[in-house]
Amino acid sequence: MVDKRKPRHGSMAHRPRKRASNQNARTQWQPVGEKRLLGFAGYKAGMMHVSHIDQTESPSKGQEVVSAVTVVEVPPMVVYGIRCYDGVNSIGDMLTHDEKILKATGIKTKKKSGIKEESVRDARLLVFAQPEKTGFGKKHIERMELGFGGKDAKEKLEYAKSMLGKELKISEVFKPGEFVDIIAVTKGKGWQGTVKRFGVSIQRRKATGKRRHVGTLGPFHPPYIAYTVPRAGQMGYHKRTEFSKEILKIGSNADEINPSSGFTSYGFVKNDYVLIRGSVPGPVKRMLKLRLAVRKRGEAKTPQLIYVPGRSR
Fold first, then answer.
1. Is residue 62 included in any domain, yes or no?
2. What is the bridge-based pairing of β-strands 273-277 and 64-73?
3. What is the DSSP string of 245-282?
4. DSSP secondary structure letter of residue 170
5. What is the CATH number of the domain that holds 148?
6. Of 155, 122, 142, which Cα lies nearest the Cα of 36?
7. What was the pLDDT predicted at 110?
8. pLDDT one-digit tens code per residue, 68-97
């Protein structure tokens, strides 16, 4: 017989379950030999559904299927600098000479960095997202590091210098059919009890006069409560990564996907957008980071979309 008793749910891998320190989640980049950018940032607008041809090895291969997709608005990002590394330690930044870009970041013009290029082993682009170009009212830029690929440090540094001061578009980074990892901070739910937080069973009516509580906190000895025991506490607003999400479409004409009254609690998409198959962490307006998938999924197959609902919704 299968044991159906489930005293608790909840992975032990995510500890401590506390609030994320910042919505701009830190990201680790997997090195690749190809000279290309490895990520981008966008804002969650909402969800919809599309019909497309199934290209997986499932029984429905070659047939028309309907999938839920997440709409992510991706305004252009601006490259304002290069961060150089000697191993794991940063040894300095190279900034653009464009005063307008530096003023937007709040950085005062610096003198020459004085970095010895022969000591550079790795580099990242310093970029910022432009939420003021969206329609939901966020004004402050969000700065971050962006990984990119290359054969060696010299090639990466030359590539980074060619990107200084430029605006990046999502179409220059990803293409439809590629898989990405979504890194974001989940919806915050505040302080919650053990039933909602860990899914423990609700007790019978006469169990010490309470129903939504843990049956026992542990033995008399050892004289402490084990960390594995479900306890009340913070639920949600955690940094999480969802792996291998397929990009079904990258578009620039937002009228193709905007509902007649806009997305709920978001409004109208005004910039380039990405349709990602499935759901992603976080509420609407939350910043998401798209990273080239670190788990191998084979060659990208261009999705065949049949129907995308627009203003008909």
1. no
2. antiparallel
3. EEEEEEES-GGGT--TT-BTTTB---S-EEEEES--SS
4. G
5. 3.30.1430.10
6. 155
7. 63
8. 999 999 999 999 999 999 988 999 899 998
